[in-house]
Specification:
With 332 residues, the protein is an alpha/beta fold. Helix content is 40%, strand content 17%.
């Protein structure tokens, strides 16, 4: 009788209990873009997303520090980052575990970790915003080397301080593509020529749009705003020929956290987030400017990225940053 009662109790205690399928995602992506993705993922998979957004101005660093602090007792399953260098820092710190997603099979190797610790997708690119009232089409630059060729008055060129942001990352990418010695020479000649060095990509955009410079080196998200506002500007991507280095694409990254509490659900989420369908969706939503997959329609933007793995860019970041501070530090 006691055994029967015990079995009834065990059976009764399980009635109504259902396993909650969930995944915890930390993201540096603006909530306005990430939240609809999470909602659709939940509808399609039945897996609840516990989203953690960092609302600080320096989102990526804030989330990186939080993940490092939680290393011994991880809470997060997947980190969806809006860039790649902090993701690689987490890899160096031993906070990521590998997962190779079949949904990323068509993403070029340059945008995937060789061992599967992270996958890059979508993003924005570096671009030269050219004022069409100051330069004719025949005069448009086609390479970063054009900016140090003497073809233009240096004051016609504006760049953001290369010690910060995507201009800093671009310097590291140039170092990775052509070597540190040649990379330093390029930026030293830019500085020596007297180019305008300003506070951020939005300022380079505004200067080019206002005709205070003929060429403003910026990011596609800033440049597209000026084009859509009807300013007399056009976007020119550098080094797009076969024998040239390509232009820097700054993608998002997805990575699974080491010791993820919901590992299997994390894999399902990564498959979803890095898929071509999601990349296209975020392009349509206006968050991504382009795809890392070649040939994907992104409103006419089809950019040849740099022919180096993002890991190589990351490995050049410290040396390039030190050089940029030495070269351009007085300009600040």
């Amino acid at each position: 009788m006691m055994l029967a009662a015990s079995m009834i109790c065990m059976s009764g205690c399980s009635i109504g209990k259902t396993e909650v399928k969930e995944v915890t995602v930390y993201t540096a992506v603006d909530q306005i873009y990430a939240e609809p993705v999470f909602e659709d993922f939940e509808k399609e998979t039945g897996i609840k997303v516990n989203a953690v957004y960092d609302l600080e101005a320096n989102k990526t660093t804030g989330l990186t520090n939080r993940l490092i602090a939680e290393k011994e007792n991880p809470v997060c399953d997947v980190y969806w980052n809006n860039e790649f260098t902090q993701t690689m820092l987490l890899q160096d710190e031993g906070l990521l575990q590998p997962y190779v997603s079949e949904a990323a099979a068509d993403i070029p190797d340059a945008y995937k970790d060789a061992d599967g610790y992270w996958t890059a997708f979508g993003g924005r690119a570096r671009v030269m915003l050219v004022n069409t009232e100051l330069l004719s089409e025949e005069e448009y630059p086609t390479s970063i080397y054009d900016l140090i060729s003497g073809k233009y008055d240096a004051k016609q060129i504006a760049i953001a301080y290369p010690m910060f942001g995507t201009t800093r990352t671009q310097a590291a990418a140039v170092y990775a593509a052509v070597g540190a010695e040649e990379g330093r020479r390029i930026f030293q000649e830019l500085a020596d020529s007297g180019v305008q060095v300003v506070d951020g990509n939005s300022v380079t955009r505004d200067i080019a749009a206002a005709g205070q410079a003929a060429i403003g080196y910026t990011d596609t998200d800033d440049a597209k705003g000026a084009v859509e506002d009807g300013k007399p500007v056009t976007m020119v991507f550098a080094d797009q020929e076969e024998n040239q280095m390509g232009t820097l694409i700054t993608p998002n990254t997805a990575a699974m956290i080491a010791g993820a509490p919901n590992e299997e659900n994390a894999k399902v989420f990564i498959d979803y987030i890095v898929s071509l369908d999601n990349e296209k969706r975020l392009i349509e939503d206006g968050f991504f400017d382009l795809s890392v997959r070649p040939g994907v329609d992104a409103g006419g933007l089809d950019v040849i990225g740099m022919k180096v793995n993002l890991k190589e860019v990351y490995e050049c970041l410290e040396e390039a940053s030190t050089d940029m501070q030495e070269i351009f530090g007085d300009a600040s």
